[in-house]
Q: What sequence folds into this?
């Protein structure tokens, strides 16, 4: 399965199966999303329209809907919640691009590069507040509380990451804590709420939370790996930004742990003064010391752990797709 | 009454009366605020601690509590909501300082100047999401919906303002629409929710909404006037930023409307190329053409309109304080 869906062909097959099962629902989610952020103001409308080209895989809406489907069935609440988690994710992307000074995402200009940082800051705020407003339309404070709490964790994770920039002693544990907060938490709450609003018992909701959490960690490890080994033409975004911003990710943490004190000295010097060539300089070393493979293996371990969480669910096409998605997110960079 | 509370002495008398009536509740609000944003992360904790010196008058919490008191009495829900509106207001201040590239606020360094723009962006997000989470703790989706909607309006107002930077043809109507959205909406919802959670009938809630809205507009007109006529030592923040950012405010809009086509030409040239001297150049003209007085008069009109909204409420110390606060916000720059 790994090799089969690792490439573009595999991704296409997987997405086609997702479309077959929940394509209609995903399109309804899109309508909910667009209706919520519609604006009467011409400038606001123009910036919001740009978001359509800015957005991506719809991973989090898929997690909500597939979790729901695997636990009983998709209800109206799921369509709203799927739009909510996508909106929160989009808000964090827009603000991330300001923080990373990124110029392209998904092959198009970022909002900060096309307009300005201030437009990006306000657009992100606009999306955050619309996401909360949309959540409240369910008329159930539980959803507001869980979405609010998860988003808190995401923001705290992002702040911790900024605080740890330039920390060349970052441990694997600290790295994993940061990515669990900034990425995995929203995946976890997506799966939890999918199960919860399908009427699943608490233990099932928690298993789905665990699934989304492990999948999110695997996803972020793979995403960080892409920033090191990817090509800009394929990924459609600025690469090497983690190195430029002195954000240590798993391969670098592994490489430092594998190196002699003298080598660590040299590496830290290199990392402390990043240039456009830093990535190319490090790549052969990361390859020969097994640091890239180590990161891939860790991502795979989280994938396995994610799949294990689904063991208690009855077999179904939705459960099968969740399992395959967990595989897929981890092998994007293989 | 105007002259009496216009100066610092007047402000002190008014605030002492507020403290006498609701000081205990305001201190409880402070505890709710601080407990909600507590963080286990050292860096996040450090930035949050800085916020204590950053915050100001607690106008919005006062509006929630005095509205509640004027309509029946202060409940636990009001303490939570007062912390929520203050947190949302603080989030917008933190992001505003990024947009305005401001270096000081309330006599201390802004978060963006002391740390960085990215820290400010994330801190604002952190506060927004905590505000929504705290709202959901009331267990009532109505509060989530109203707070969510009001914050949407605030963000859309901020975006409209950014879009209109450099628009030297901004009309008074457009200006008022922007300040109603970005400032008055949160004051309006503060008063509405104060009345609503005190068990007031719908018509009273709407009257309080109208009061907060008119007060908010008067407040912002006065605040914008301070940016033109104030002194940095008294206001404790960077001044002249509206002119630097080509944000037209009421005195300038009035001056342009009073000028001959040739004068308008000259003024627009000046406004389109702002320098540190622009404010000093414009001040005598704004004074002699009555543009400062015009803005003061408009603020007073909104104050009168705010007070009128309270007519149906029974007389009480809380109602009296609301009326006096409406006077006070408009005369800060008198």
A:
């Amino acid at each position: 399965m790994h090799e089969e869906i690792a490439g573009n062909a595999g991704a296409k097959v997987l997405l086609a199966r997702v479309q077959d099962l929940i394509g209609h629902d995903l399109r309804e989610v899109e309508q909910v999303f667009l209706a919520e952020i519609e604006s009467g103001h011409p400038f606001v409308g123009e910036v919001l329209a740009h978001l359509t080209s800015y957005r991506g895989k719809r991973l989090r809406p898929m997690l909500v809907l597939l979790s729901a489907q695997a636990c009983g069935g998709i209800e109206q609440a799921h369509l709203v919640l799927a739009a909510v988690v996508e909106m929160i994710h989009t808000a964090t992307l827009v603000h991330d691009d300001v923080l990373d000074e990124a110029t392209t995402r998904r092959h198009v200009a970022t909002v900060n590069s096309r307009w300005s940082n201030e437009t990006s800051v306000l657009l992100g705020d606009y999306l955050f507040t619309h996401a909360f407003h949309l959540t409240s339309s369910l008329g159930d404070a539980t959803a507001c509380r869980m979405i609010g709490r998860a988003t808190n964790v995401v923001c705290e994770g992002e702040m911790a990451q900024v605080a740890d920039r330039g920390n060349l002693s970052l441990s694997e544990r600290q790295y994993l804590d940061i990515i669990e907060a900034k990425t995995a938490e929203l995946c976890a709450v997506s799966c939890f709420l999918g199960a919860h609003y399908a009427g699943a018992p608490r233990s099932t909701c928690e298993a789905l939370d665990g699934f989304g959490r492990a999948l999110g960690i695997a996803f972020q490890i793979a995403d960080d790996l892409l920033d090191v080994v990817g090509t800009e033409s394929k990924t459609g975004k600025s690469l090497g930004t983690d190195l430029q911003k002195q954000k240590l990710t798993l391969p670098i943490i592994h490489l430092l742990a594998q190196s002699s004190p003298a080598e660590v000295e040299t590496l830290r010097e290199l990392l402390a003064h990043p240039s456009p060539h830093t990535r190319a300089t490090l790549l052969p070393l990361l390859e020969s010391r097994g640091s890239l493979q180590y990161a891939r293996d860790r991502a795979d371990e989280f994938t396995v752990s994610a799949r294990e969480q689904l063991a208690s669910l009855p077999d179904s096409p939705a459960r099968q797709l969740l399992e395959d998605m967990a595989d897929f997110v981890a092998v994007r960079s293989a």
About this structure: The first helix of chain A runs from residue 2 to 6.
